[in-house]
Write a sequence for this structure.
């Protein structure tokens, strides 16, 4: 019996919700607007997003004038209902016209019916807005747009602090950008309001935005992730190439958990600390100080400088991506058969070529950089004569002893071609001997 009770208390799975919401009249019996709506379907079905704690569906009115986002929960929480009631009561006292970040929310503790049992749901209006990372992908070459969003985001964070409110999980997936470059916040599962003082934090937050030493759950809980986001936006405004240079996956802006755990070894933090924008360098230094500090509350965000004086960028070198496990194994076997100096002079250029590294991007320094290769790339066209004019500087070929593998690769095709031609001639002579008439000189 106890096992059955626990099983009955388990919330529906994603598949259960996907089947149920396709019949809104049955699934939302207490909400007339949702019951009369239509579930929006795409190639993957009705779900538009899912995570660790729940999934989101999109429903639209019959005339298409209204659209809602409905969040259903796939995980159990004893405190969720009471927390949402408290958060909804606090947000209801705010004026959406003044709090532009706010998205009105309704919580129904028994709002969705699945397999004869009712479960909680959250209902929000569907926004005409773009997720933060998608917006950056389109605007990364526009420094003014990036700084405008960074400035608005800074104002939003300050506004929350003035209200003694913290979002609790600031990260790219919970930030939308609407016209004209306005920041909107969604997903209030971990939100803190004054009435929740003294309660436990419901979730840790996104690992690529939270300090390894957690900030106490309270009105200042957003300061560290907010600085990570502000730094990412301003860093890209100063140098758009960081978007491709530093992002190792699509689950971050520029920085990640590994940068926070070992800031002294972080290539991303080193690149931001060398930004042409003095404000980016200052924010990077403050973020590193936050990571090393034992204080519970990091300092507030700095004002965004909309027209900074940028330091002239120096010449860039080809970025060296982190080697894969296969590359590391191959490198280890090669070093066993070659001398240390020869390996150092040939492995770095080969790795860059094989990985498709883009010329003209800043290298990501490591704590123990490898020796520079003997062959140096030509300088960028922007900082010297145009290529092809005869006046550009030629790359130094280096010692002749550093290229025997290339010469072997060059000779091997020649040997193969010569061997093939010789075999072809012998075969032709043999054929002529067989078919030649008796009077032929070949006999």
């Amino acid at each position: 019996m106890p096992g059955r009770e626990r099983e009955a208390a388990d919330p529906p799975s994603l598949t259960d919700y996907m089947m149920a919401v396709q019949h809104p009249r049955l699934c939302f019996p207490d909400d007339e607007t949702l019951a009369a709506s239509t579930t929006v379907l795409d190639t993957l079905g009705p779900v538009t997003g899912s995570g660790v704690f729940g999934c989101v569906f999109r429903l639209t009115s019959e005339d298409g004038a209204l659209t809602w986002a409905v969040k259903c929960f796939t995980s159990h929480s004893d405190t969720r209902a009471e927390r949402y009631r408290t958060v909804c009561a606090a947000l209801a006292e705010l004026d959406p016209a003044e709090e532009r970040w706010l998205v009105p929310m309704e919580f129904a503790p028994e709002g969705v019916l699945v397999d004869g049992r009712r479960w909680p749901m959250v209902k929000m209006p569907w926004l005409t807005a773009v997720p933060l990372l998608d917006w950056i992908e389109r605007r990364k070459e526009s420094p003014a747009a990036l700084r405008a969003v960074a400035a608005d985001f800074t104002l939003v964070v300050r506004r929350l602090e003035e209200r003694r409110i913290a979002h609790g999980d600031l990260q790219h997936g919970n930030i939308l950008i609407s016209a004209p470059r306005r920041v909107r916040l969604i997903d209030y599962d971990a939100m803190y309001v004054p009435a929740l003082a003294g309660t436990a934090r419901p979730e840790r937050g996104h690992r690529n935005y939270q300090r390894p030493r957690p900030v106490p759950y309270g009105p200042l809980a957003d300061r560290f992730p907010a600085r990570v986001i502000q730094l990412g936006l301003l860093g890209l405004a100063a140098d758009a190439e960081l978007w491709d240079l530093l992002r190792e996956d699509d689950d971050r802006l520029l920085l990640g958990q590994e940068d926070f755990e070992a800031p002294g070894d972080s290539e991303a933090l080193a690149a931001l600390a060398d930004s042409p924008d003095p404000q980016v360098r200052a924010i990077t230094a403050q973020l590193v100080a936050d990571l090393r500090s034992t204080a519970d509350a990091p300092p507030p965000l700095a004002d965004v400088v909309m027209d900074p004086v940028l330091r002239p960028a120096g010449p860039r070198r080809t970025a060296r991506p982190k080697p894969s496990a296969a590359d590391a194994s191959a490198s280890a076997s090669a070093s066993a058969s070659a001398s240390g100096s020869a390996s150092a002079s040939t492995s770095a250029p080969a790795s860059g070529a094989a990985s498709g590294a883009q010329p003209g991007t800043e290298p990501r320094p490591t704590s123990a950089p490898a020796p520079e290769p003997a062959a140096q790339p030509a300088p960028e066209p922007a900082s010297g004569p145009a290529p092809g004019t005869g006046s550009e500087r030629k790359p130094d070929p280096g010692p002749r002893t550093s290229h025997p593998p290339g010469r072997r690769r060059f000779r091997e095709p020649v040997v193969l071609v010569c061997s093939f031609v010789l075999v072809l001639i012998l075969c032709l002579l043999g054929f002529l001997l067989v078919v030649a008439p008796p009077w032929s000189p070949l006999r």
User: Anything to note?
Assistant: Residues 289 and 298 are 9 Å apart (CA to CA). Strands lie at 38-39, 47-50, 54-60, 67-73, 106-114, 117-125, 130-131, 175-178, 182-185.
